[in-house]
Specification:
With 206 residues, the protein is of the alpha/beta class. It folds into two domains: 100 residues, Oxidized Rhodanese, domain 1, CATH 3.40.250.10; 90 residues, Oxidized Rhodanese, domain 1, CATH 3.40.250.10. The protein is 33% helix and 18% strand. α3 packs across α4.
């Protein structure tokens, strides 16, 4: 599906009119993605309804990006079944996107061991929901849920380095991408708290 051209859709994303979702898995997204695209990995279990809940009543024009036509086709169907409006899709992957002269970006990755070893170099922001913090968070981490990051960005300092963490690395990669676009020095903690706790690094509990 491509109701609008790639160039037109990119302009809408840059103007803040449209929402661009890279539906590849986080490890693929982290290696590079279209500029302005958030990571919302496709899964076949009520993905469209999950997206609708995440949008919290908003229904912007949506574009979907992946490197597999069957994944894009399934995601478009799932989104439309949930009542969402998909106006653009791209199923030819990042190489083709670049070759078409369209803008890309990449989120800097940080492993949990690198964060642990260089903890004093970063302000850690945990973007999970409040209930998820019951199992523990990185000691001293700020808690700003993903849905609040844009409204609370004034609390942050562009002279600091930020490490963004969630449970698995998906939400944090989207937040890190957005913050990078705003001019912050930011990295995404790959594997998130799942790997952090699995490695038995210290945690702080409420």
């Amino acid at each position: 599906m491509a109701i609008v051209t790639a160039e037109t859709f990119v302009s809408q994303v840059q103007e803040g009119v449209a929402l661009f979702l890279d539906i590849n898995q986080p490890q693929v997204y982290g290696k590079g993605h279209p500029a302005g695209a958030y990571n919302f990995p496709f899964n076949r279990r009520a993905w469209g309804e999950e997206l609708k809940r995440a949008l919290n009543g908003q229904n912007p024009p949506i574009g979907l990006f992946a490197n597999d036509s069957s994944v894009v086709e399934s995601a478009v169907s799932s989104a439309e079944e949930a009542g969402l409006t998909v106006i653009f899709s791209w199923d030819k992957g990042l190489e083709s996107w670049r070759e078409s002269g369209l803008p890309t970006e990449r989120v800097v990755d940080l492993t949990i061991d690198e964060l642990h070893q260089n903890r004093d170099d970063f302000v850690v922001i945990d973007v999970r929901e409040g209930y998820e913090l019951r199992t523990g968070k990185v000691p001293g981490a700020m808690h700003i849920p993903m849905g609040q990051i844009q409204s609370r960005v004034q609390e942050l300092d562009k002279d600091r380095k930020y490490a963004i963490i969630c449970q698995s690395g998906s939400r944090s990669s989207s937040v890190a991408a957005w913050m990078s676009q705003q001019g912050f020095d930011v990295a995404n903690v790959i594997g998130g708290m799942s790997l952090w706790m699995g490695a038995r690094h210290p945690v702080e509990r409420p």
